[in-house]
Amino acid sequence: MSLKAKNKKNEEKKTQEDSKDEDKTSSPKAKLALGNTEKKMAGQKAQEYFKNGLALSKKAKNKTEYAEALDCYTMAITLKSSNPRYYFARGNTYRIINEYKRAVLDYSSAIRLDSGTANYFSNRGQSYRKMGKPQVALNDFEAAIALEPGNTNFFFQRGMALYDCGLYQKAIKDFTTALKDKKLTYRAYYNRGNCYRRLKQLDASIDDLSQALNLEPRNPSAHNNLGLSFFENKNYDSAIKCFADSISIDSDNPTFYNNKGLALYHRGDVDEALADLNEAIARDSARNPDPNYYFNRGNARLSRKENRKALADFEEACRFAPKDARYRHAVGLARQQSDGEEEMALEQFELALELDPNHIPSLYHRGLMLHRLHRLDEAVDVFSAVLEHAKNDRLVYESRGLVYQDLRLHVKAVDDFTTALKIDQHIGENHYHRGESLLRLGDLKNAILDFKAALDLNYADPLVFNARGMTKRALGHFDEAIDDLTDALQHAPENVEFLLNRSLCFLDVDDPGSAEQDMHDAIAVNSRDYRLHQRRGEARLLLHEFDLAIEDLKEALKCDPTASSRIDIQRTLGYAYANSDRHANALEYFWKAKDNAAIVQTNNTLDKSIIAPEIRQQELLDDEMDMHEIAKSLQMIGEYDDAIKYFTNVIDLNPRNAHAYFRRAFAYKSVKEFEMAAEDFERAKELDPENPHLAINYRNLYDVECIVLCDSGREPIY
After folding, report:
1. Model-level pTM?
2. Which structural domains are found in the chain, ordered by start?
3. Which residue, of 97, 485, 523, 560, is most buried by count of CB atoms within 10 Å of its CB?
4. Whole-number Å distance between alpha carbons of 500 and 544
5. Is the pLDDT assigned to residue 607 strictly greater than 50?
């Protein structure tokens, strides 16, 4: 047989054998056997990948190395997707590298395959916590505890979720349970201590955190949190020591420097505080800076009146956290403390309220700025809105009361100050403010009681002495008033208001020399206040220093006095000229005073029937006095007919004015109307029989042109 034929025969034989083998494996039984073998081999391969993944996870130190472990777990799951342990292991790895969403998906797959393993629920709960979903996490920890009620770690984890939910009292119970496990003792004390601090149970917090430190004395976070509890307990010395201990262990953590700086600031060591706050900012992350560090440094700078530097810090805080109303509010505070920046401060508080309409501090400070800007009705509305949120805030009632004072609504002001005192009766300042309004309402005795209460509560502001002094002056207790005003000036020797008020009291007790000295001292402080020149002019008039008085009064007219004060100054100039026998000059100013008074009365559009009786009475008295002085000066320059006319007008206004009858009698005598003169002399004696100057001897009057009864400006009121 040829070689070619032999090869062909062998090929046919092989084909027949292959066909027989194919028939054997094509049977159902053969196929099932082969499938089981492949599954077994896949399961074995999956187990190998799983074990490799565990080994890689154990050794991994970075994300790349963990990625290799993840690949192994993924291959294991691909080969055998029914094993919950593979999903659990991959979920753990995702959790380690902070990919919590993927971790949750894997834990959920593990739970779907095996809902009886507590750790699957516990680890998914921890991932939900890291995702900021503590309420969802609580359900998982509840499930884990139900499956393994003796596992203290699950109680600890539930405690952490409860803490995140703000349920501190419940969290404390779980951390207390966790203390049974020695492995959890430090963390349980540490976190329970933080819960106590949140609940303001600071002594318990300090005890727990101290216990935690006993277990781990080199843990910087424990020192830091213990410092926070001391800080809230206002034990700043201990807080500072704790924060310093944190820094000594970890000198790169900016939070520890910030906290230490804050404690130093509250202790009053602002320079040291600024040094630590500078360190916090220097060590802070350039990529993700903490705006609170700038905020705290800004507050420290603001306390040193470094308003511009503080403003820069607050603006930086706003740049890093543009939607935080607190930082925008702080910008407003820096503006508020800078002179002349009320409008800009108001704008910042309004911006803060746009960010957070319920930011009550900004609403309150908006009210303060509206008050400063004299937008008083708006300020009242704002403070009233604040009180809807803070009904027991004493300071808001006080602030609204001060606005009511400026609106001259003193009854409402008294109500607000009274409410403030009901909230806290030991605030002397509110007694003072209420006393001021009671003084304006004419309730002098109760005003005195409030001023005394303010002083008894150590509110020894010179304003209290000033107000009580003016109240005593209104009661006619001039010497006591001078004593109080002297006390006020001991606290503030250059306060022109106090000097001005004491000068009034000196004039009340006929001590123009002391009044002149007070005004001399006041003018040295402020030479552009017309009231000071006016008052010194009045004192010099009483001292008969007429030229100096005239000089002061003319200077007062140059200092832009009010309309009513201008009239008073012109009258007083008339008195000074008249008392120095310059009656033509006196008449010039008497006429000006009378004409200006008429203009003021004409411009008052109120119906005279509804003007307060005391105001109308004063207007009539001023008219009477003005015409009386004009009449006397006309008489002295020989204008007897005009003098008679003005004396008659005075008598028409006040028929009891004995001095007017007496002086008109001399005017009649000068024009040889002797009977009219005699009638006036007799009428003057009838009206004021106790005045010996009015009982004249007619025989002695022949060569007497006129008898001057008193200085100009000193006419008695009949």
Report:
1. 0.76
2. 392-459 (1.25.40.10), 476-561 (1.25.40.10), 574-718 (1.25.40.10)
3. 485
4. 20
5. no
